[in-house]
Write a structure and sequence with these properties.
By secondary structure, the chain is an alpha/beta fold. It folds into two domains: 5-16 and 82-204, Rossmann fold (3-Layer(aba) Sandwich), CATH 3.40.50.1000; 18-80, Orthogonal Bundle (DNA polymerase, domain 1), CATH 1.10.150. Helices cover 45% and strands 14% of the residues. The chain has eleven helices and eight strands. The strands form two sheets. Strands 5-4-1-6-7-8 form a six-stranded parallel sheet, with helices on both faces. A two-stranded antiparallel sheet has the order 2-3. Helix 1 (18-32) packs across helix 4 (62-76) and helix 7 crosses helix 8 (152-161). The protein is elongated and about 55 Å long. The termini are close together.
């Protein structure tokens, strides 16, 4: 039986969180009186929350703003989240081949787990609070041989763990940018993932084949 793990990023890879995150930023802006261009923010999702907040708030306010953002998130953003095209099919393809699914994300653990549960994605493990090369630690811990993500930071995470980097052009970076950055495989979206997996040695060893 195959015994492997495939890692996935969350925001803009498995989950379309743009509308919900934008709504939280709008609420935070209304509460504080500080202008935040939520459309700009949601067009560049990926880095940790504190990194984005630094573009709008003084450094001394960032910890409090991050705490408030996370207080608002479950009630505003999670219910507004939808699956990215092909998300469930990608997860199912890994399980069908006998593998495990690991989500590794910069989102905090609570909201990452809540998002996955809300979408009904049957993943095996969720690890939050990790960004870019930091993701490599979780990928190594769980023995992930593949990591799928929409951001160049996800490519860095895969490289750190010696995993195959699969870039999906569903976020800020298009196929050319992901390929130029060094992603091992580039797909238009997760709809193409099951076919790619079936063509690899992992998919070829599926117990159903």
């Amino acid at each position: 039986m195959p015994d492997f793990t495939v890692g996935f990023d969350l925001d803009l890879t498995l989950a379309d969180t743009r509308f919900g995150i934008g709504a939280v930023y709008d609420a935070l802006s209304a509460e504080t009186g500080t202008f935040v261009d939520s459309a700009l923010v949601t067009g560049r999702l990926g880095p940790p929350l504190e990194t984005e907040l630094a573009n709008w708030f003084p450094a001394a306010q960032i910890p409090a703003m991050a705490d408030r953002f996370r207080e608002l998130y479950p009630g505003i953003a999670v219910p507004a989240t939808t699956p990215m095209p092909g998300a469930r099919a990608a997860v199912d393809a890994v399980h069908r081949a006998g593998g495990r699914v690991l989500v590794v994300t910069a989102k905090n653990q609570r909201d990452a787990e809540a998002t996955v549960a809300f979408l009904g994605l049957p993943v095996d493990h969720v690890v939050g609070w990790l960004w870019a090369t930091e993701k490599g630690a979780a990928l190594l811990e769980y023995g992930a041989s593949v990591y799928v993500g929409d951001h160049v930071g996800d490519v860095d995470g895969a490289r750190t763990a010696g995993a195959v980097s699969v870039g999906v052009a569903t976020g800020l970076f298009d196929e050319t940018a992901l390929r130029d950055y060094g992603a091992d495989v580039v797909l238009a979206d997760l709809l193409a993932f099951p076919g790619w997996l079936e063509g690899t040695s992992l998919g070829a060893n599926s117990p159903e084949r």
